[in-house]
Specification:
Blueprint (H helix, E strand, L loop, with lengths): L22 H7 L17 H4 L8 H4 L8 H20 L13 H4 L25 H14 L14 E6 L3 H16 L2 E5 L9 E5 L13 E3 L6 H9 L3 E2 H8 L40 H13 L4 E6 L11 H14 L5 E7 L6 E6 L2 E6 L3 H13 L19 E3 L5 E3 L1 E7 L11 E6 L28 H11 L2 H29 L13 E5 L3 H6 L3 E6 L8 E8 L6 H16 L39
Parallel strand pairs: 4-5, 4-6, 6-9, 9-12
Antiparallel strand pairs: 1-13, 2-3, 7-8, 10-11, 12-13, 14-16, 15-16
Helix pairs in contact: 6-13, 7-8, 10-11, 12-14, 14-16
The structure holds pyridoxal-5'-phosphate.
Amino acid sequence: MTDVTSRPHQLPQVPFGSDGETWQQILESQGLSNGHAAPVSGPIGDPQAMYPVEPGLETRAFELPASGLSDAKRRKALSSMELYLADRRDHMLGYQVTQDMNGYPTDLSRFMENHLNNIGDPFQSGGYKPNTKIAERAVLDYYAALWNAQWPHDPRVPESYWGYMLSMGSTEGNMYALWNARDYLSGKALIESTEPTTFGALRYVQAAPHIDNPNAFHPVAFFSEDTHYSFAKAVRVLNVDTFHAAGEALYPGRCPLTDADGRPLKEWPTEVPSRRGPSGNSADGPGEIDIDALETLVKFFAGNGHPIMISLNYGSTFKGAHDDVRRVCERLLPIFEENGLLERPVQYGKDPKTGEAKIDLRRGFWIHVDGALGAGYGPFMRMAYEDPRFGWTPEVDLPEFDFGLTLSSEDDNQIDMVASIAMSGHKWPGAPWPCGIYMTKVKYQLMPPSQPQYIGSPDTTFAGSRNGFSPLVIWDHLARHSYQDQVNLIRHAQDLSIYLENRLRQLERKHRVKLWPARTRGALTVRFRRPSDKLVDKWSLSTEDVFMVPKKPETRRRYAHIFLMASTTREKIDAFLAELERECADQLLPAVEALPTLAAEAPVELADGVLSLAAVPGPGRGFQ
Ligand SMILES: *Cc1c(COP(=O)(O)O)cnc(C)c1O
């Protein structure tokens, strides 16, 4: 490649666009570069040669020249996209995303004529009227009922729910939960502005430090090894200490956990361990959080005066596992109680007349449920398990996970345990693009506590502009399906998961190959030995590499998984299995030894004073 930095006007002659012209020729034909410097920067390489190749699509056909594309070229490009998507959709098995919209969004395509924007709080009309908030509120109420929250939303009722529909998926929901939890637990408050000129404005303040507990406003976050990478991202974005970071910085060498042989751990692990499997490690475990380990860790940090933030998984990303939220709560409530975390005063101001302290009574713990996948179907599985009239008894009674989960404290108060839930709408029940729900309770929202009648800042959501089309899509789905229909959808997915697991075991026996098929009970996913790249690619399989024994590269295993969604058909699974069977018969499965080396095998040693903050999940966990 020529050195272009010194001669900016002499770009390489890169062909650009589908007409065979170069970038320079196009600029000249548009009168944009005749002897003078062009107003835009040109390519220093050929994007078509540099960008990833997807069979059936051509980078060149999508390149956007200064002239735009002719109608014919534009339509040709769009047609190639349509064919590509139809084919990829027919072969998508690896991700927990519903593929088939049953044609119903086409019924909604007429709304594409509008710019739909639900900017601001869903419970306030706001100035931008072309919105769909009426449908959004109906959807939120529907899930509030499913998740046993008190509804409808009422800003005057602390126990009632508050929530909104996300423009992103659960990544946004998890981030919002952590933001809300961080502010709530660290003693942030929104109070009315002290400046009389800014009518209605609020001020964001930090409560006065606690006199005898320096950690009172230093929350610590806990989440398991099987947690989605969005949570590790959220702690970085929001600068929240994980127990690992706080442990290494404040309590080095004091981790109360032990390894598989009962020896104390020298370093704080980066995440809460997941339950161990037959190997004695978590790699072949069910994917649920290790409740004993969590309890030990929480006890340590609560005992040192920290408020506690925990994210639990309901439908984990790779193994589809459901953390036992109820059992976690039962184990942790006594710890919260012992350490004064059920109620603690947060002083944020004083009365201007009497000088009396203005105090907000808050919890010192926050339990978030990342129900990206499971919060969508879990309630229907639980319903079917309880009530034979639905005509199907699921193989497991999924754990209780929602706002209805209350426990009795020592002094016989009913304590509701779950503070927030996130769900991805495109995973379950399905939508043409990412969307989702975040839900909490009015009492956890930051607002002036002196004024329970306060109507809430209109700027309550993460984004400003919000997707107004998603509420229509989810609303339409819910309007088309009764609870019985919903049960039937999850039943189909569960039956298919069991079917796939059994078929994989048959293949293993028949061809005497190791396929390591595994499925956590109640999960919609089956994991197994990663087949050839060709199959991984063709069927959009999601893959993950694990060490069966931590830090022992020779024990690495490569897994793939398939998610069985309401849109997955038996035909599709059979077609995949036929191809997998051919690989078993012809011994085409990649050898276990033929694994590429990972960068992690040559870790950098941390210099003195460098703090370890959080593990950032690499490929896997839904990323690859
Ligand atoms: C998919 C997933 C997320 C992230 O959701 P997005 O909708 O992709 O943002 C978070 N948590 C879990 C458990 C997930 O499976």
